[in-house]
TrEMBL record:
Name of the protein in question: Disease resistance R13L4/SHOC-2-like LRR domain-containing protein
Source species: Sarcophilus harrisii (Tasmanian devil)
GO cellular component labels: cytoplasm
Domain of life of the native organism: Eukaryota
Keyword Glycosyltransferase: no
InterPro entries: Leu-rich_rpt, Leu-rich_rpt_typical-subtyp, LRR_dom_sf, LRR_domain-containing, LRR_R13L4/SHOC2-like
Residues annotated as domain Disease resistance R13L4/SHOC-2-like LRR: 235-345
Ranges that cross the membrane: none
Pfam family, one: LRR_14
Stored Gene3D superfamilies: Ribonuclease Inhibitor
UniProt keyword terms in alphabetical order: Leucine-rich repeat, Repeat
Family annotation (PROSITE patterns): LRR (PS51450)
Length: 368
């Protein structure tokens, strides 16, 4: 029933007595009929992008409701009766008009995912226990009370104005995913390095200039994003993250790679575009399990013969560099499937390879 220009649900909705899922997103509904209370088996309700200015209190009678999505409306607060929705597990309140965090959700004991991104919230209560998505709000600081959120597994604060993370975050030892991208953080939050279950960390778009020794102890990290910071070197401490599968260091000021990168035997994806490389870093050729390498938007002119050691490589991006001719060394990469080679300033790459050297399944992207 989504995208149907509906302005209301008919009272006859009660006849669908066995309904489990109801999706009426992208309509013009502003209220719900009392008859909806008779949908006693309803477990998932999607009311996104409608005209609700007040929370429909009739939903309190839907005792089996587990998922409720009200994103893209005009809600400013939640009623006290919402505490009765004891089985609610997923609540989406993104893109509304909340300026104060709706504390009532802290009493929903089964709630495991709460999304309040794109609101006007500036502070948080200490009682939160669930996965919290609060991207693109107006939060300037994270209170030390965050240490009380010991059961949190996911925290997303992307696109706020946070300048620092209190050391007390180390007490939130169940966190597995942390997104602090596009804030105003200048010092690496060392408290995160004590989170023994942290696997995903995103610090893109901040103002970090150094990587602390503490990070090297985060051996459980699998995914690390440090793009668009102020890093001038590839830290040896990162190379001690032996389980890292994905590393993004794009759009920094890096010009060299340390030999210790050879220790990163699990690394499959390495993003280094938009840095200051003038020479292809031979140290990368020790990464035998690397599948994706992005070195676009640098100043590289040639590829060393050692690149043939990248026995698992499938995708190479060398676009916007300084190659004058096709790097013939790439023809030794039998696993390569996609190569991007468009160059800077209108220069063209001479295709100086014979037909038998072009891989059967290799997609080549040249500037025409």
């Amino acid at each position: 029933m989504k995208e149907n220009e509906l302005i209301a649900l008919p009272p006859e909705i009660k006849l669908l007595s066995n309904l489990c899922v109801l999706n009426v997103c992208h309509n013009h509904i502003a209220s719900l009929p009392t008859e909806i209370s008779q949908l006693v088996w309803l477990r998932q309700l999607f009311l996104d992008n409608n005209k609700f200015l007040e929370f429909p209190t009739i939903l309190g009678s839907l005792e089996k409701l587990e998922t409720l999505s009200l994103s893209g409306n005009g809600l400013k607060r939640l009623p006290e009766m919402m505490a009765n929705m004891k089985n609610l597990m997923v609540l989406d309140l993104n893109s509304n008009q909340f300026s104060i965090f709706p504390n009532i959700v802290c009493y929903l004991t089964k709630l495991i995912k709460l999304s309040v991104s794109k609101n006007l919230i500036s502070s948080l209560p200490k009682e939160i226990k669930q996965a919290l998505y609060i991207n693109r709000n107006k939060i300037m600081a994270i209170n030390v009370n965050i240490s009380h959120m010991k059961y949190l597994k996911v925290l997303e604060f992307s696109g706020n104005a946070i300048k620092g993370i209190p050391i007390e975050i180390k007490n939130c030892n169940q966190i597995r995913k942390m997104d602090l991208s596009f804030n105003k953080i200048q010092d690496f939050p060392v408290g995160l390095c004590a989170l023994s279950f942290l696997e995903y960390l995103n610090l893109n778009g901040n103002d970090l200039s150094e990587i602390p020794l503490d990070l090297s102890f985060s051996r459980q990290l699998i995914h690390l994003e440090l793009s668009q910071n102020n890093l001038s070197f590839f830290s040896d401490y990162i190379c001690r993250l032996f389980n890292l599968d994905y590393l993004n260091l794009s759009k920094n000021k890096i010009s060299q790679v340390p030999p210790s990168i050879s220790n990163m035997t699990s690394l499959r994806v390495l993003i280094l575009n938009g840095n200051n490389f003038e020479i292809f870093p031979k140290e990368l050729c020790t990464l035998e399990n690397l599948q994706i390498l992005d070195l676009s938007e640098n100043q590289i002119q040639y590829v060393p013969s050692e690149i043939r050691n990248l026995q698992a490589i499938q995708n190479l991006d060398f676009s916007s560099n300084r190659f004058g001719s096709f790097p013939i060394e790439l023809c030794h990469l039998s696993t390569l499937k996609e190569l991007q080679l468009c160059q800077k300033n209108g220069s063209k790459v001479k295709k100086n390879f014979s037909p038998h050297q072009e891989k059967k399944y290799l997609s080549l992207y040249f500037q025409q």
